[in-house]
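Data follows
____________
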Amino acid sequence: MTAAMPNGPAAVSSRALALVTGLALVLATSPLARAADATPASREAATQPLGPKDAVRALAEGEDVREFRAFCDTWMRKLQERNTYNAAHIVWTKGGPGVIGEYLTYGTERTCLAREEPGKDPIGKITYREIKYRKEGPSESAAIGAAGTIVEQTDVTEIFRYAKGRWQY
């Protein structure tokens, strides 16, 4: 069973009192408030800016960190070029009623995410799908014209770091 919140002036004043009490607690425990009751040396230390370890760290995340989107697009174009190369250079083996060949392709759907924190090297991740196909036929030319069968699919995550002014791989 839950108690109903009262409405009207009494409810507003009780919520206001809770808000003021919470604010007073925050102010009473702040470094400046503690410094008021402290020695002159500790009061001076409390009013100094926080060091990098104590400061709130700014975090940048997304495709736009250090132009990671452009790097990601270039990387995916390289994989598409690899698709063409792999399909043109299938290694054929004798098997079944003729020849069998397997080759890798890379999906076009991808996720690109980079993250940068002060004092650390930016890190970027690209995730895409790698697909292994098999083609079969009585001869190489017949197998090349045949539709490939998916043998295996793997989601791949590649991790890169930003150093010396560019994304490293």
